[in-house]
Amino acid sequence: MEEKLVKEIEQEGVSRRQVLAGTGALAAGAILSHVGGLISPAVAKDGTTEQWPWPYEKLDPEKTAQLAYEEWYRVFCGAAVISSIFSQLREKVGGPYNSFPIDSFIYLEGGQAGWGTICGAPAGANMVFNLIIGPRKPLTDNTTAHEMCIDIMEWYSKANMPIYMPKNPKVTAELPHTVSNSPLCHLSVGRWMKAANKPLASPERKDRCARVAASTAYRAVELLNDWKDGKYKATGEFNCGKIHGITGQQNCNDCHGANIPEAPKAPPEAPKAPEAPKKA
Amino acid sequence: MEEKLVKEIEQEGVSRRQVLAGTGALAAGAILSHVGGLISPAVAKDGTTEQWPWPYEKLDPEKTAQLAYEEWYRVFCGAAVISSIFSQLREKVGGPYNSFPIDSFIYLEGGQAGWGTICGAPAGANMVFNLIIGPRKPLTDNTTAHEMCIDIMEWYSKANMPIYMPKNPKVTAELPHTVSNSPLCHLSVGRWMKAANKPLASPERKDRCARVAASTAYRAVELLNDWKDGKYKATGEFNCGKIHGITGQQNCNDCHGANIPEAPKAPPEAPKAPEAPKKA
């Protein structure tokens, strides 16, 4: 996984040497001077919020999911996932969680202000991972949050949603379950609406989305608890950049049908000159 | 615009009465008690980061764009947009900007950890608007940040990117310009790669993305400066929920071709009973 990430980061414009040397603030400084050195690395001035990992105490996934379900009816999917985890950590830990403005993230609903891009549930979980565990190499010596984003987006795309069944659900009729094959709100909600034959404004669609947020918060806490116990292993396998040479999801056929285009490829590397014979 | 937003919020499960009564924390409490009252509204414990708007001083769009361009080579698109604006506001204002962990948001690159969902540039701008101006109704009495998200995603989708030309660009060859017709990374980057015939890992693609982040930071600051001057007017017109009854982007044909499905619709409202005659 480490090697894979090094390759991905290289694609984004950081050399292998920089990545492999990338351990903490020192590395960020080294990279900075390499690319121009015009801007200092951002360090939050109170000295705690840009030092990772943020202190984490294990949470109960069930309790977290129920909180997320209820919070959906106040702040919708993205902020509900963030709030369900951070509201508990404010109580248990305090510190950096106290100053993080949870309610700002209501805009993640509907795939960001209703535009149907990434569902707020994985968008909120991705944010939580990166706030708690910290940014990836080369800014830190850690690739875990990056890997956890890939894991939860892959998990979300394959899950038969909604998974979590709340206590005292607002809608008591049985809801259909669907697989989105994508982390996008438009596809996740659209496939469910088609299967359920329910409109966007229906109580059933709303409760389905509240349960999707709850299901994602549950899974996010499972991953974070594993990480806290030193048991987390990255499981995500999809890498569109490797397969097709472009950033992407795993549902290529949804838009491309059978004709998935190949992105322009880098020219093959020139053969290396033979090494000079070693001196005896 | 106000009326449109009220309708959108209604679709998400909040009643018209609640929305129209939604002025600040009091309204949040009222809504909360309506939907169950199990969770207190999140209020950051230091008392400054969840009070909106955050103090804002007008910034120079040109300087901000150049900062974003340079920051791309450290933290990629999403965090570059956030950093270009917040690093200046840390100097000019301090306060809530000091504790916001900018560098966590490196994961917005590549449409969130390389998954090709929303481009980090509009994702970062959306975040900045909602952190500074504050969340929409019903949590506050303000719809501006919500409208600004729609504006910048529509602007991004129609822009002939990249627009901003940095001082001392790392790539000096002329780069092609393309219109993404979408805020998604996969489409924005993919269309440009096809036009340029350059691979993902090429210096040209990287510099194109750095300039896209810079262009978006420039536009974000123009909108924020207008808002500060009391001159901001929402201009975004696309509303997929209204047109097709589902969250979505404006590029329906990209995936659906000519056959854009209609989402399940709500049954027509029952005719209202005639009002009782008024007493004389």
Description:
Two copies of one chain form a homodimer. By secondary structure, the first copy, chain A, is an all-alpha fold. The first copy, chain A, has one domain (52-247). Chain A is built from ten helices and two strands. The first copy, chain A, has helices at residues 2-11, 16-20, 24-35, 61-92, 120-132, 144-158, 185-196, 203-228, 240-244, 252-256, and strands at residues 160-161, 178-179. Chain A has a two-stranded antiparallel sheet. In chain A, helix 4 packs across helix 5, helix 5 packs antiparallel against helix 6 (144-158) and helix 5 (120-132) packs parallel to helix 8 (203-228). The first copy, chain A, starts with a helix and ends in a 24-residue tail after the last helix.
Structural key phrases:
homodimer; globular; about 280 residues; mainly alpha; two-stranded antiparallel sheet
Layout of secondary structure:
Two copies of one chain form a homodimer.
Chain A: H1 2-11, H2 16-20, H3 24-35, H4 61-92, H5 120-132, H6 144-158, E1 160-161, E2 178-179, H7 185-196, H8 203-228, H9 240-244, H10 252-256
Antiparallel strand pairs in A: 1-2
Helix pairs in contact in A: 4-5, 4-8, 5-6, 5-8
Number of helical stretches of at least 4 residues of chain A: 10
State mean pLDDT of chain A (0 to 100 scale).
Answer: 84
End-to-end Cα distance of chain A: 38 Å
Strand order of the largest sheet of chain A: 1-2
Elements of chain A, N to C (H/E): HHHHHHEEHHHH
Q: What's the oligomerization state?
A: homodimer
Largest sheet of chain A: 2 strands, antiparallel
Radius of gyration of chain A: 21 Å
Strand residue percentage of chain A: under 5%
Tell me, briefly, the overall form of chain A. globular
Runs of chain A in which pLDDT lies below 50 for 5 or more consecutive residues are 13-42
